[in-house]
Amino acid sequence: MLVRALTVGPFQENSYLLADGATHDAVFVDPGDEGERLIAAVEEGGFTLRAIWITHGHLDHVGGIAALKRRFDVPVYLHPLDRPLYDRAEEQGRHYGVRIEAPPAPERDLAEGDVVAFGGLSFNVVHVPGHAPGHVAFVGHGVVFGGDVLFAGSIGRTDLPLCDARAMQRSLERLAALPPETIVYPGHGPATTIGEEARTNPFLTGAARPILR
Predict the structure, then answer these.
(1) Spacing of C-alpha 128 from chain mean position
(2) Pairing between strand 136-140 and 121-127?
(3) Cα separation of 179 and 171, whole Å?
């Protein structure tokens, strides 16, 4: 599996291009902004884009979808509980003074227990709400694409609309139960491992708790 991280937009969000090195099939996880740059990454790699997978519907994770969709016309996967956020992404952008193109409607629903695949690679879908009601993580091949649940040394915010601090705590516990060598590719910041976060992240050691709204 090939993983290329592209940090995009004013929120410095990590968009991930995943590819099967044998078949050159690929997917984009959370294409957040700078659509033309994301398109170039696919074409320069000689990949065939098969799908767009979204961990959650916040504006900084969906702003590049429209451009990718126009160029490649691939299905967008999203958990239905995040449609209220996803459908208002352009409006969210105006609130923050950021212009993004409204993403097109998703074609595929994600749910706990689903398996999503491309080329010869497959990932389990894990529902990890808290930062957003329909937040999911993609787990497989020794890695987790966890969006804004777990960061290196921190976690995603729980003081925004539709956040739930108690659900976030349960979701963190689920991710912490993954093998310690699991690589965490987060929505912001550097990659880390479950083991490193279990040792040092105050939200996993019990020194801190998610913020209640």
Answers:
(1) 11
(2) antiparallel
(3) 15
- The predicted-structure confidence for 86-99, as pLDDT tens digits, reads as follows 999 999 999 889 99
pLDDT digit string, tens, across residues 19-44: 999 999 999 999 999 999 999 999 99
CB neighbours of 33 closer than 8 A, spacing ≥ 6? 8, 9, 10, 11, 13, 15, 60, 63, 64, 100
Q: What residue type is 13 in one-letter code? A: E
| Per-residue model confidence as pLDDT tens digits over 68-88 | 999 999 999 999 999 999 999
| Residue 69: φ, ψ to 5° | -65, -40
Residues pairing with 29 in the sheet:
16, 53
- Mean pLDDT for the stretch of residues 139-164: 97
Pairwise CA distance, residues 64 & 75, whole Å: 14
Copy the structure tokens of residue 51. Answer: 């799908």
Domains defined for the chain, CATH in brackets: 2-205 (3.60.15.10)
Per the CB < 8 A criterion, the answer to whether 127 and 51 are in contact is: no
DSSP state at residue 104 = P
Report the predicted TM-score, pTM, of the whole model to 2 decimal places.
Answer: 0.97
C-alpha angle with apex 53: 179 to 4, nearest 5 degrees? 70
Distances (CA, A) of 52 to 64, 93, 154, 192: 10, 21, 26, 23
